[in-house]
């Protein structure tokens, strides 16, 4: 069987790791890329090739894509997943940290898309899966910079879909809500590096209150299965929010309006 090829970023943990493993189990040869070598080595196998990569390094991205084309002759799927969440009040997060958030979450995606698109155009087929977030549709106090980066991913994805749909290339957004990964732990580590005046203490407490249910949330496999389902369909969905409470949140905001929806969420945060 000739296996299709997939490039999965942020594959050393969480959603990226689960996706790389699932795709390899379902007929794909996966190029799994991330920055943590020891974590990548854990998933290396007959159908998973692990490569160290920082999505802020454009030359390195181009080199990886050239390697894929040289060894496999084509690239069928890009799963843009590498990213992180910079929490903190907009006033207090430094411009350096805000820029870095966009360099990884937005421009990292853009670099990978620009690298694979010429090859997908040449073969008249391909699928780009951009892992967004439910916060790409609305935002919350303390999530401003992260949500802004995911709003940007949504805008880029919608524009790109219109540009390449006629060229045989699908663009799909998958918008996770709270998923049980290492993501929240990293978010709080970064939050602790931000100095907040006492005026913002309720928001910081609210972030902890809102995210405390992460251990009871679905695991990353639910998103991996959504990725597989999307790339297996002839007409994949434009956007897919998971799990069910994330889908409900998007629908509720649309039904009840932004002002009421924001009031409800602030009440949940206790602010």
Question: Mind explaining what this structure looks like?
Answer:
With 271 residues, the chain is an alpha/beta fold. The chain has one domain: NAD(P)-binding Rossmann-like Domain (Rossmann fold, 3-Layer(aba) Sandwich). Helices cover 51% and strands 15% of the residues. It contains 10 helices and 7 strands. The protein has helices at residues 14-25, 37-41, 58-72, 95-123, 144-164, 183-191, 201-211, 221-232, 244-256, 258-269; strands at 4-9, 28-34, 48-52, 77-80, 126-131, 169-176, 239-242. β5 (126-131), α5 and β6 (169-176) form a beta-alpha-beta unit. α1 (14-25) crosses α8 (221-232) and α9 packs across α10. The longest helix is centred in the middle third of the chain and has 29 residues, at 95-123. The chain is globular, with a radius of gyration of 19 Å. The termini are far apart. The relative contact order is 0.14.
């Amino acid at each position: 069987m000739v296996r299709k090829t997939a490039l999965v970023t942020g594959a050393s943990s969480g959603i990226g790791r689960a996706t790389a493993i699932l795709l390899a189990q379902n007929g794909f040869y996966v190029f799994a890329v991330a920055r943590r070598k020891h974590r990548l080595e854990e998933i290396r196998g007959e159908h998973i090739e692990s490569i160290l990569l920082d999505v802020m390094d454009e030359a390195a991205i181009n080199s990886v894509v050239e390697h894929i084309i040289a060894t496999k002759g084509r690239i069928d799927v890009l799963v843009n997943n590498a990213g992180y969440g910079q929490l903190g009040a907009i006033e207090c997060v430094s411009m350096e940290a805000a820029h870095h958030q966009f360099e990884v979450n937005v421009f990292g995606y853009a670099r990978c898309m620009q690298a694979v698109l010429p090859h997908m155009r040449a073969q008249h087929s391909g699928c780009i899966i951009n892992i967004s977030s439910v916060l790409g549709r609305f935002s919350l106090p303390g999530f401003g910079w992260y949500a802004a980066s995911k709003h940007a991913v949504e805008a880029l994805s919608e524009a790109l879909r219109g540009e390449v749909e006629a060229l045989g290339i699908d663009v799909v957004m998958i918008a996770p809500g709270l998923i049980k990964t290492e993501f929240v732990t990293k978010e709080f580590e970064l939050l602790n590096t931000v100095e907040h005046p006492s005026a913002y203490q309720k928001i910081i407490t609210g972030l902890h209150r809102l995210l405390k249910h992460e251990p009871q949330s679905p695991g990353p496999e639910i998103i991996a299965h959504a990725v597989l389902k999307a790339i297996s369909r002839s007409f994949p969905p434009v956007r897919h929010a998971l799990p069910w409470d994330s889908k409900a949140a998007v629908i509720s905001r649309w039904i009840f309006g932004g002002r009421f929806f924001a009031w409800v969420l602030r009440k949940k945060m206790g602010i």
